[in-house]
């Protein structure tokens, strides 16, 4: 203890304080940059070779068809890679029962919209995806003269591109055909404004 | 002559001391900065995760207001999780006694149905890949698991076939179990920690 106390005057306190600051700055930078340095982004993995603005049903998740880590075969997925650069994208899906979900992701993986099936009734999801910069400039679908349906709310999306995911839960053999038929009814299409 | 040598030696020692100080400084900064960031992104902290027994979940997963650690964690993992507002994914890499899950051991997972939620339980290898098996069985959901009359269930993780809810683990080595819970929205009021109380217990039976 005494040896340590004798050493204290020799420790450069300014250097110690500078080290703390430098550690904090490096910690913040490393954390903020980490998503950009990720070896493969989920969006790119899951949407590779997918056509734009078209809903496609992914094959059942198996060891050979698993596109993402920890992607469980507890559901079947329909996926649409949307791009609102040239106009709005309309998205429709029906969620027939518990466990069904529609989720929209940005390319960074943010889940910015989710609709979960309501128990005891079918839930119809119908959305018109419009990029947020158009909204900011007042270029809403209505302002551009496009007709919007009252049952199709306009959703301002924070990203021009992303993926829409319809998730049908695995409920056993008896429900597979029905769930697949419901997934096939999901639509994702470009709508010019 | 000896005076010049003495001054030279003194200068060399001073230079070496300064270099050592700076090397120490840079070393501490690099290890401290990158190390603490890596730990917070990989393992999380009390601010970003909830740990219950062997289960860990990230509380702000996929939310648009997620903190940078959660964002970095999921970007590095390369997954598309559902928003934590509607669903939670709990990952276990150890049994309830804290020993790493390994395919050379048999495990029993004891749980209880969660009436207000839809859930699934899937076994992966340590990197999150499904484990190839002849039975093509990788997961159980709240719809497909065989429940006891009292609403409880026991699932077995083992290499060889077992009666009941058996999930094969093959020769995958280290394992990870994912427990996904989706809120069905049938309650008027959600109570904090209600899922955590019902998370399954993982018991090692034999190795």
Q: How would you explain this protein's 3D organization?
A:
The complex is a heterodimer of chains A (193) and B (207). Chain A has 193 residues and is α+β, with helices and mostly antiparallel strands. Chain A contains five helices and nine strands. Chain A has a five-stranded antiparallel sheet. The longest helix of chain A has 25 residues, at 13-37. Chain B is of the alpha+beta class and 207 residues long. Chain B is 25% helix and 29% strand. In chain B, α1 (2-42) crosses α2 (68-77). The longest helix of chain B is centred in the N-terminal third of the chain and has 41 residues, at 2-42. Chains A and B meet through α2, α3, β4, β5 and β8 of A and α1, α2, β3, β5 and β9 of B.
Topology, element by element:
The complex is a heterodimer of chains A (193) and B (207).
Chain A: H1 2-7, H2 13-37, H3 42-47, E1 55-57, E2 75-83, E3 88-95, E4 101-106, E5 111-116, E6 123-131, H4 132-136, E7 154-157, E8 161-169, H5 173-184, E9 187-191
Parallel strand pairs in A: 6-7
Antiparallel strand pairs in A: 1-2, 2-8, 3-6, 3-9, 4-5, 4-8
Chain B: H1 2-42, E1 49-52, E2 55-58, H2 68-77, E3 87-92, E4 106-112, E5 117-125, E6 139-141, E7 152-158, E8 165-168, E9 175-183, E10 201-206
Parallel strand pairs in B: 7-8
Antiparallel strand pairs in B: 1-2, 2-3, 3-9, 4-7, 4-10, 5-6, 5-9
Helix pairs in contact in B: 1-2
Instruction: Name the overall outline of chain B.
Output: elongated
Tell me about the biggest sheet of chain A?
Answer: 5 strands, antiparallel
Task: Name the assembly state.
Answer: heterodimer
- List the domain count of chain B as a whole number: 2
- Please report the total strand number of chain B as a whole number: 10
Residue share in helices of chain B? 10-25%
Q: Specify Rg of chain B, calculated over alpha carbons.
A: 25 Å
> How are helices and strands ordered from N to C of chain A?
HHHEEEEEEHEEHE
Count of folded domains of chain A:
2
- CATH class type of the largest domain in chain B: Mainly Beta
State the separation between the terminal residues of chain A, measured CA to CA. 77 Å
Question: What is the name of the CATH architecture of the largest domain in chain B?
Answer: Sandwich
Widest beta sheet: strand line-up of chain B: 1-2-3-9-5-6
